[in-house]
Amino acid sequence: MVPLNWYLMLSAVVFMIGVFGFLTRRNIIIMFMSIELLLNAVNISLVAFSHYLQDMRGQILAVFIITVAAAEAAIGLAIIIALFRNKDTVHADEMSEMKG
Amino acid sequence: MLSELFFGYYASAIVIFSLLVVTRSNPVHSVMWMLLLFFHIAGLYLFLNAEFVAAIQIIVYAGAILVLFLFILLFLNLREELKVKRFIGAWPAGLFVTTALLVIVLSVVRSFVPGPAGKYSIEFIKQETHTKALGKLLYTDYLFPFEIASLVLLVAIIGAIVLAKRKTRSK
Amino acid sequence: MNNYLLIPFLPLAAFLINILFGRKYLKDNAHWVSILAVAGSWVVTVITLLDVLSGKVVNEDIYSWIVSGEFKVSVGFLIDQLTAVMLVVVTTCSALIHIYSVGYMQGDKGYYRFFAYLSLFTFCMLMLVMANNFLQLYFGWEGVGLCSYFLIGYYFDKKPASDAGKKAFIVNRFGDFGFGLGIIMIFLTFGTVYYEPVFSQAKVFAVQTINFLGYDVHLMTLIALLLFCGSIGKSAQMPLHVWLPDAMEGPTPVSALIHAATMVTAGVFLVARCSPIFSLSETALMIVALTGAITSLFAATIGLVQNDIKRIIAYSTISQLGYMFLAAGVGAYTAGMFHLYTHAFFKALLFLCAGSVMHAMSGELDLQKMGGLKKYMPITYWTMLFASLSIAGVPGFAGFFSKDEILWLAYSGQSPVGKFVWAIGTVVAFLTAFYSFRLIFLTFHGKFRGTYEQEHHLHESPKAMTIPLIILCIGAVASGWIGIPHLLGGGEHFTEFLTPVLGHPEAHGTHAEEWLVMAISIIAGFSGVGLAALFYLVKTDIPVMLAQKFNATYKVLWNKYYVDELYSFIIVRPTIWTAKNILIGVTDAKIIEAIVNGIPKGIGEFSRILRKVQTGLLQRYAAIMALGVLIIMAVMLLR
Fold it and tell me: DSSP alpha helices (H): ranges in B24-142?
């Protein structure tokens, strides 16, 4: 029997890979993929909890997270399209409109 | 022993694919690796007796979201994308922060103690069937969040259209 | 509702109507509202006077104004004999001067504004005299001061007028500060600011002293002197007299109403009203008497040499106000009030006549450019002559009776300075007669000394102006007849009437002495008139010769004893210097501005540094956030 902690560690590793990708990649689409990684990492731990605690709530949350991820991907990619149209780039470090 | 082996394969595949996703310079490759990653995650869900989640993992992620990503990638000039740098200049800093966080989280996870088990044991779910058990909960106790999720999707549809629409110049 | 409420509130209503609708709708008809209101006030005043004569005294609150713990003040009215006298003076003069203004102010672009302020002034003055507590008195007091400021500066586009308005206002601050402190002292002592309990309890505190700056001061003296500070400012006594001559920059009806007949007498009214307090302090009374006497002499001597027709009358006003204080100071409050009452008529008349002359002379004020106006404006001449006879103290005229009563009571009263102030009063009576008739002779007799155009333009004033002159002239002649002394077979009705409020003045002297005092004052008056006639009708070269011979004295008098220059040197210039160099230069620029500008500047500098953090790079933000999470988790783990 695989212990729960293994799943949690896997989840943490995937999550941190996602964070790394988000923090370091220039391409904004890859950054979005990194976000998907983060969501998936969380889903892994939720489903694992659900299985080990014998409680369906984890899976229900996972379903909601997938829903939200779909919505987020749609909106986010629409933003990328709008951004690309205006700035002609998909590189996050080339945009500094928020500069103070 | 078998289950450990099984888990070992899936876990190492997931980690490797994740790393590939965030490091490939060609975004199309990244998407492809991500597709594989999602299938493996779905496999892991099956291993955890979560058939329904595994199914929507494939349908929604692999079927819908990744297709969206591919679709967006059509906008990009891929050839030029391959020439430029992948990472920002300060990527070691990101690596350091991430690693430090990972060390902390891993060290915390080891001392995690699970709470008492609930009533959805494997036997109960076998008897009930998984999708029915999930559906029952979703349409009773979680009806309200469920409806809100539908609204979120609606807003996302409208928002995506509004944002991506080409602005017509009004005189 | 009691009809006496109409007395102050009719003018208030007129003010509101004029100020709100005057500019657009009433325009040249603005006077109707004000005149009707003031005339209504006058009618109600007469009815009220009849009530008071039959012995009815009203003292009631109509509206709770301020309630704060122990401190309770209402808008309330006290109508006793003293108030009734003031009401008659104020409403009569105000009504006549309103009518006069119709002629005088005709065609002025601020016509409605003038009448609005005049009505507001009347309201404030009536609130002042009708108050039944010190705070309402103070309200009226400041209200009339405000109106005075408005009306002195009525021609605000003329620099001297606006300066004079400011001067009047600021000089009055000095006095009113003391007055305010006096009211506070009254509240601290008596726990109330209502007249009735204050005056009835005053005797309880008669011997009490208070530690003031380390000295034991007689409490009643302190209160009385603080109140008297207000009187000094408002009634233009030494040393705060400087504003009144300058106030003549205002329109002449204003000078007549505010700066002769009513507002400036408020100080005398205050002393009379607070007579129960003043009577308990011999020191305060003595200071009042001496201030009055010295002021009256001082102003009369200045009046001798001035050439500006309105300024002469203004100095005459200061001098006569000094007379009233002199009377109050020797304990003869009724005599002071009597003089206030007669003075209101003849002094208002003098001013209105001066206004009439100015009207004919196209605004000319210099006596040296007048002369021989008698044949062009007979009504003005005769009325002004009667007013001058009255002020000179010629027997039979109003001024004679009131002045004589003051002099007699000063001579015979118990005041330690009585004889001294009597002597000054007699000298002043002589000087008054002299300068009044100098004015008459230079204006109306002799040859015209102005330009040809002015002579061509000379005319008698319109009826709206001459009718008030005639009515006031009757007052100037006859108003004294209600106070004819027993010695001349009169009834002293005025004194009798005011006795319930002010007490009966004590006189210790024989009939022979009384005759003597009267004779001396008559001689003083006549010799003043005679000397003026000699100087300005018969031998017109004498004054010029005297001025040359006593050049130094003449210069001092001509420059009003250099008081303005002195104040400018001691107070005004140091104040302006302090304001410019210390308040603006140091406090404002170096301290306040430094703080006010320094804080935003510091914040600006700080944010300029902090701004560098805001790179606008999305991933930098995310990294910092991750770092924050890392730190929080590390802290939680290590704890």
Answer: 27-47, 51-56, 66-73, 78-83, 91-109, 122-128, 130-139
- Cis peptide before C574, with omega less than 30 degrees from 0? no
Domain ranges of chain A: 7-92
- Model confidence pLDDT, tens digit, residues C411-430: 887 777 878 888 888 888 88
Best mutation target among B97, B98, B103 (most C Cβ atoms within 10 Å) is: B97
Classify the phi-psi angles of C120: left when phi > 0, otherwise alpha if psi is within -120 to 50, otherwise beta.
Answer: alpha
Each residue's pLDDT tens digit, C548-599: 888 877 787 777 778 778 888 888 888 888 888 888 878 877 888 888 888 9
Chain C residue with minimum CA distance to B95: C623
| Whole-angstrom distance, CA of residue C418 vs CA of residue C345 | 27
CB C522 within 8 A of CB C513: no
Q: Which residue has the tokens 């009233």?
A: C324
Instruction: Report whether pLDDT(B162) > 60.
Output: yes
List the single residue in A with minimal CA-CA distance to B15: A14
What is the distance between the alpha carbons of residues B111 and B47, in angstroms, rounded to a whole number? 24
B73 → chain A, closest CA residue: A29
> Which of A46, A53, A66, A83 to probe by mutation at the B interface, max B CB count within 10 Å?
A66
C-alpha distances (whole Å) from C428 to each of C129, C179, C319, C434 are: 29, 29, 8, 10
| Model ipTM over 0.95 | no
- Residue C306's pLDDT is what? 83
The CATH number, out of the four listed (1.20.1250.10, 3.40.50.2300, 3.40.50.150, 1.10.287.3510), of the domain defined by the range A7-92: 1.10.287.3510
Q: Kindly report which listed range (C90-94, C202-206, C311-315, C333-337) carries the lowest average pLDDT score.
A: C202-206
C612, C616, C623 member nearest A96 (Cβ): C616
- Count other C-beta atoms under 10 Å from residue C518's C-beta: 20
Size of chain B in residues? 171
Interchain pair A62, B53: CB under 8 A: yes
Chain B nearest C-alpha distance from C608 (Å) = 24
Average pLDDT, chain A: 88
Give the lowest-confidence range in B149-153, C417-421, C422-426, C612-616. Answer: C612-616
Any B CB within 8 A of A70 CB: yes
Q: Which is it for the CA torsion C415, C419, C424, C429, positive or negative?
A: positive
Q: What is the mean pLDDT of chain C?
A: 84
Whole-model pTM: value is 0.68
